[in-house]
């Protein structure tokens, strides 16, 4: 039995699954936490990867491995391959001003959407490089190479610096439509031409570990989730991890000049239009902390309050927000009365507020032409019973919850199995036990949320 390993080096932790390459059956797994923060020392990702592999019982018998990682993070290496400063992560908003400058310099959002498929916000690597050039010119001058979190780990494993279309498409200096880097945009932002990872094809092998394990190209975590879910035409994934993401696979590249939908590439040679919020699972972590309860009790409380929480609305911009682009926003509670000042109302408002942000994302994806036959709910917060039961009423559609699993890591394992097989298409691993959740849509929830949200958005930036 050939085994493959998949790695999810995401914001909060590193997860490893080891699966049978033919059936996809998970035979063992491990995980290790990442330090908190919006900057990270890449050495900590490497240490967490080693710890997660050890917890998974090591790589004995593993023929191939793939690494998926949090998108966009800026990893700067000097000419000897040493990390110059902690990586700035996708959820670090200090480059919001740089994003606005760069948008104007190229001629506005339309010009960026045409050039790269996306309008850059603070998450995009290109804006972080501009920030570095402006604020840490010495570090910028020493930067010989720029890469992304998953590229860094693949490089540590194989000694070869490569990336893939999916992760490259989140940099802001690679064009999904042209399938090529845009060195002109990198130079415009950074004033220099650092070396970049070679972009491999979807099923190419990057190299081998010292122990001889083949390593696939890897990809961004959302692209890997699409692979792990086997996302097809008409499927939309809603992922509730540290970020909230809504995405679909598409045959055509997207170019949304409103900036709501990022026109990424996927990990199969197609495209992955995606909406990302900064506030998802951690909104529930924060609500649970404020109420002094665990997630199970938060879920029970949320389900004990009525839909709409009697008018209590949480606009959950606890980390600022990316979609809509309000990096300096804060969270706010609206409709607080004596009668709604209860743990149950707050718990319900937290779940509904988080889901409303994603429902707005789903609308944006539909406005760009996405077909929605099925909504698949994944990510840490999809483990919450309240989230699963309330989601259909907020999203206005039934939702499908795949069996609990690590779909990003599984997607990376699918990529590894694909690279190993040399087949024209990735393997499709069946995952029995899908749960279907339905509920009457409650439009009032989104209407009240929209009122509160628009009050925040109407304030001058
Ligand atoms: N039962 C649960 N209810 C709500 N949130 C949960 C539950 N279990 C885990 N989480 C949250 O999910 C998040 C981790 O999700 P995950 O998808 O692994 O994130 P990431 O990939 O961004 O690191 C954490 O914030 C965690 O507290
Ligand atoms: O920035 C994005 C997508 O554009 C995020 O989705 C990151 O890729 C981080 O993902 P998680 O750690 O939340 O899975």
UniProtKB/TrEMBL annotation:
Gene Ontology molecular function: ATP binding; D-xylulokinase activity
Keyword terms, alphabetized: ATP-binding, Carbohydrate metabolism, Kinase, Nucleotide-binding, Transferase, Xylose metabolism
Name of one Pfam family that matches: FGGY_C
Carbohydrate kinase FGGY C-terminal domain span: 237-420
Enzymatic class: transferase
Similarity comment: Belongs to the FGGY kinase family.
Annotated PROSITE patterns: FGGY_KINASES_1, FGGY_KINASES_2
Gene: xylB
ATP-binding found in the keyword field: yes
Key word Nucleotide-binding present: yes
Source species: Thermomonospora cellulosilytica
Task of the protein: Catalyzes the phosphorylation of D-xylulose to D-xylulose 5-phosphate.
InterPro entries from the UniProt entry: ATPase_NBD, Carb_kinase_FGGY, Carb_kinase_FGGY_CS, FGGY_C, FGGY_Carb_Kinase, FGGY_N, Xylulokinase
Matches recorded under HAMAP family: XylB (MF_02220)
Listed GO biological process terms: D-xylose metabolic process; xylulose catabolic process
Descriptive protein name: Xylulose kinase
Catalytic activity: D-xylulose + ATP = D-xylulose 5-phosphate + ADP + H(+)
Enzyme nomenclature, EC number: 2.7.1.17
Residues that coordinate or bind substrate: 71-72
Carbohydrate kinase FGGY N-terminal domain sequence ranges: 4-228
Gene3D superfamilies, alphabetized: 3.30.420.40
